[in-house]
Amino acid sequence: MKYFASRGVVSFSVQYRLYKGFSYINNKELSAEENAKLKAAKLKKYNTDPADPSIADIVQDCEGAMMYIRKNAKQYGVDPQKITSIGDSSGSHLAASLGTLARDEACSNAVVACSSISDLTTGFGPDYIKRSKGLEDKKMEDDPDRLKRAKAVSPIFNIVNGPSILVLAGGNDWLKDEPENFYKALKAKGVNCEYKVYPKAQHAFIVYSYTASLKEITQAVLDIDAFLVNLGFIDGSSSLKMPGSNTKDEVVTEINEPFTGEKVLQRKNDFPEYLTISMKVKFPQKFNGTLLQMPGTYGFAWNVNNGGHDFIARRMRMRGPQVKFESGKWYDLVVSLGEDKVVIKANDQEVTIENKIKHTFTSNEIIFNKKTGAVIKDVMVVGVAR
Question: Other CB atoms closer than 10 Å to residue 191's CB: what's the count?
């Protein structure tokens, strides 16, 4: 929302009722038979509880929001013929519903569906459609009314040749083929649509600080921007820049003189997204602190003490005695922050941490020697070629 506001776009965050879902946790003090009876009773009550909103109710909440925005378009400075619904995962289902199930004033003029859930008849979809009375133990294919209700709230079964739709997908998404199937169905119906795949991205890749690298998220935002420019919904070029990549290894900075206190290297712009940091270190008799840190969401912290170490970054962690330091001894340290892995070398010790989400290490600061009391010298920071 902040990004598109910078592009002159009015954005709204739509609030809607949440589907409660069904769950049952076994009571360890009861037998399997007793748990099964309690679970069945709870499921029966769940399927007849009128207070629990259905998926159709939630879609109606979003339709109500769309109609409210159109009705008050002048007040908010909105063009009522250029309204785009954008969502991710379950929000993608709702955004796509506004371009398929919705009609007339409740319908979007364009849709951006990220990690799209479009078919509630398969996969985990049936879990969100209540079972029909008397058929609580039946599968969806044996419950015609339930199947009908599932199709009624599945965008893939309600496509109209109306709004333009951009489908964005992660190559490593656990949804597997659902976004592609939605795109193929749109094409078959003659809808003006586009399909983008980010090969290394997982589910919910559009969310900052979640599963995707900064580069993947930036590319997705730029693709959405370009889609809206092509539709004539926004004008001009985006000021958003991709994180820079080095074409060759490049020394960013060096510190040759020894130091014992905390030292901060700071740049006006961010350091390169992948780095190798090398230095010589000698620890005091007792130490416990942060030897290296790049602050911020896309940074990391490497904590050390007499017993071992603890490396922490987004969805990455390794702690324990894999790397140990003796006091009064010089160590040649190399920390390589790469796209596929982080490698830490200390003399003859070496550990590897897999970078599963291709985490980019982006910050404009590197902090050395925070409360460790170590002697550090011959520091070199190198941007790694990609």
Answer: 19
